[in-house]
Design a protein that fits this description.
CATH class of the largest domain: Alpha Beta
Number of helices: 28
CATH topology of the largest domain: Collagenase (Catalytic Domain)
Strand order of the largest sheet: 1-8-9-7
Strand content: 5-15%
Structural class: alpha+beta
Length: 680
């Protein structure tokens, strides 16, 4: 996992996880709510998700290359075609000045698309890394190798990155975070359900096959078991995803001297010097018990086992960019077994994905020049303003919150910064060395460049102009440290937003997304941060208890929602996103009333009232087909509920849903008024 990815995952709350002429043609054909996508044989009060999206789901089976297919994927795929056009033009422009983003993007794309050369080289591009690990003779050598790999954003055992101090958001500090698991989630190593057991078996087989191909050890079966045992020990000492959701649980600031006392077997002074951070300053050690266990493992685990574990981290991290035999094996496990995908993505999409990770903002700079109309930004600013005003009024009218907490909540809302479209200041990539003839080396150069950039922030005030997502990303996020909501250009398109759609559709789509991100500032995690982005208790004890009681009811609702066979949603793990969904759609509807006062809606469009269109718009945002394997994985790993629950459970708590679609007690989604959860 890229360092920017782990940082984004931990510290921002996101809603989701061509040419110009083509674009205008698509917009002219756009129908905001298309009745042909609906399945009106389903009663809206029984399953609104299927009622709104059933025919779309039938008409849009999951492509073989994907594990799910929905609104986000469709729009992302359209964006990818536009980005491909940009990259192909950059690739052809061999006269672009060295160090320009056109030269860098064109060269990186060219090197990644050169499958003949990549296949000829096989494992050779990563051999220097493997040789360094093979030369390890002592515990000191092992520690040097870990630091060396970390400097290239290959992260055995733990992650190193920077982010604002949770209790002093005006200062960026060093962050250490647990990691080191090839399957990501500790539960796959520790639980004994059929899914986890099967994945463990397949994972060992995958490691063994990779070792057979690489010939890095003459005993692949033995090595693969040793690596699995090592990762299992790491997993057993890791914090659960649910435990990590509480920011208080992962805040343990200490000095370098204190860290050294915690883990005396690891030379942190040398580690930080090797990785390029001679003065780490204050350090947040997110999981001290994990690092204590790591300290013990340094002595308890044989050096040879450590060496194989490090080599496995290198091979596994870089295999998607090596020759076909490595790529295919990586896909067999992570694509087919883990997620249910049937076919590998075409090379250009894989290379594009890599570029989005390494130089996404540079690519975004070219993207917004061609594809982001200025009027979209202006309309978004109006939408955000209306939602802020609506949220302000809702806070003032809350019957369960004291005046003192209300006042601080209103202050936090007022201080919430808004970013739309793309950054005002672009990141400088000019010193990054990218050539046309070595894909892996380009990746390593980019990783090194990114790590240096990340570490350079430590000890300084955060750059509040910086974005945590690229402009072309089909997503949005809230950052509690920055107290800001961010909406990249990529999501400001149908079905989320259209300048040509009626207000009901835009408020049900992007309005719900805006409200969702605003509400993250007041969910079970976000509420613990004040208006300045500092982790602090600004609620009265009584108000916090009332809030927790309300969220308990929401947890229970989602816990009882069956997704597949016996698989349920984890209401506690998904709580923050569920609060944001419920708050987002509620606040957005209030904001819509404001918009209607200025621009009264038509009685009906295509037979639907404005409120019906509003709810249908929300529902179509979450339409998707998903493979069973991917669904099971997400129920264990993802803090977001599946799309059907983001529609059905949320709407079952909204009074307007019952009125708009005449939902009665005999309908499956019906909840008695006194049982409908209302938080914000």
């Amino acid at each position: 996992m890229k360092i920017r990815t782990i940082a984004a995952t931990l510290f921002i709350m996101a809603i989701f996880f061509g040419c110009t002429n083509q674009k205008s043609s698509q917009m002219s054909q756009f129908k905001a709510i298309d009745p042909s996508n609906m399945d009106t044989t389903v009663k809206p009060g029984d399953n609104f998700f299927l009622y709104a999206n059933g025919n779309w789901m039938k008409k849009n089976p999951i492509p073989d290359e994907y594990s799910r297919w929905g609104s986000f994927n469709v729009l992302e795929d359209e964006n990818n075609n536009r980005l491909k056009t940009i990259l192909e033009a950059a690739e052809k422009n061999t006269n672009a000045p060295k160090g320009s983003i056109e030269q860098q993007l064109g060269s990186l794309y060219a090197s990644g698309m050169d499958s003949i050369k990549i296949n000829q080289l096989g494992i050779q591009p990563i051999q220097p890394l493997l040789d360094k690990i093979n030369s390890i003779k002592t515990l000191a050598d092992l520690q040097d190798a870990i630091a060396y790999l970390h400097s290239y954003e290959i992260f055995p055992v733990f992650y190193l990155f920077s982010s604002p101090d949770e209790k002093n958001s005006n200062m960026v500090i060093t962050q250490l975070y647990q990691g080191g698991l090839g399957m990501g989630n500790r539960d796959y190593y520790t639980l004994n359900d059929a899914q986890s057991q099967n994945l463990r078996t397949k994972y060992v087989e995958y490691i063994s096959k990779m070792y057979e191909i690489s010939k890095e050890n003459p005993n692949p079966a033995t090595v693969s078991k040793a690596i699995m045992d090592m990762e299992t020990k790491i997993a057993n000492n890791s914090m659960t995803l649910l435990e990590q959701r509480n920011p208080q649980n992962v805040y343990h600031k200490m000095s370098l001297a204190d860290l050294q006392k915690l883990t005396p077997n690891f030379d942190w002074t040398k580690y930080f010097a090797t990785v390029g951070l001679p003065n780490p300053g204050d350090i947040n050690v997110a999981q001290p018990e994990f690092f204590k266990a790591f300290n013990k493992m340094l002595k308890d685990q044989p050096l040879d086992t450590w060496k194989e574990y490090l080599k496995w981290n290198v091979i596994n991290s870089l295999s998607p960019y090596l020759s076909d035999e490595y790529v295919n094996q990586h896909f067999e496990f992570y694509g087919k077994t883990f997620s249910g995908s049937k076919k590998l993505l075409p090379r250009w999409k894989r290379v594009l994905g890599l570029i989005n990770g390494e130089m996404g903002e540079a690519l975004g700079q070219l993207y917004v020049k061609q594809y982001f109309p200025p009027e979209a930004k202006q309309k978004m600013i109006v939408l955000v303003s209306n939602l802020k005003a609506a949220f302000h009024d809702r806070i003032q009218k809350l019957d369960w919150m004291s005046d003192s907490t209300k006042q601080k909540a209103i202050e936090k809302l007022a201080a919430m910064n808004v970013k739309v479209g793309y950054p005002d200041k672009w990141r400088d990539f000019s010193k990054l060395e990218i050539t046309r003839d070595n894909y892996i080396q380009n990746i390593l150069n980019a990783n090194k460049f990114d790590m240096e950039y990340t570490l350079s922030k430590i000890g300084k005030a955060p750059d509040r102009t910086e974005w945590g997502m690229t402009p072309q990303t089909v997503n949005a996020y809230y950052s509690p440290n920055m107290n800001e909501i961010v909406f990249p250009a990529g999501i400001l398109q149908p079905p989320f937003f259209s300048k040509d759609a009626d207000d009901a559709v835009n408020y049900g789509g992007i309005g719900g997304v805006i409200g969702h991100e605003m509400t993250h500032g007041f969910d079970d995690q976000g509420r613990q941060y004040d208006k300045n982005g500092n982790l602090s208790e600004w609620w009265t004890k009584e108000d916090a208890e009332k809030f927790t009681a309300k969220t308990k009811a929401l947890i229970d609702e989602y816990n009882n929602y069956v997704e597949l066979d016996t698989f349920h949603i984890n209401g506690a793990l998904t709580l923050g996103e569920n609060i944001a969904d419920l708050g987002g759609i509620t606040i957005s509807y209030d904001a819509l009333q404001r918009a209607w006062k200025q621009n009264p809606p038509k009685d009906k469009i295509d037979g639907f009232t404005p409120t019906q269109r509003y709810l249908l718009s929300w529902a179509q945002v979450w339409r998707q087909n998903i493979r069973d394997e991917e669904l099971k994985k997400r129920l264990k790993d993802d803090v977001h509920s599946p799309g059907d629950a983001r529609v059905n459970v949320v709407l079952s708590n909204l009074d307007i849903f019952y009125d708009a679609f005449n939902v009665k007690p005999e309908n499956k989604l019906y909840r008695a008024p006194e049982n409908r959860v209302k938080i914000w």
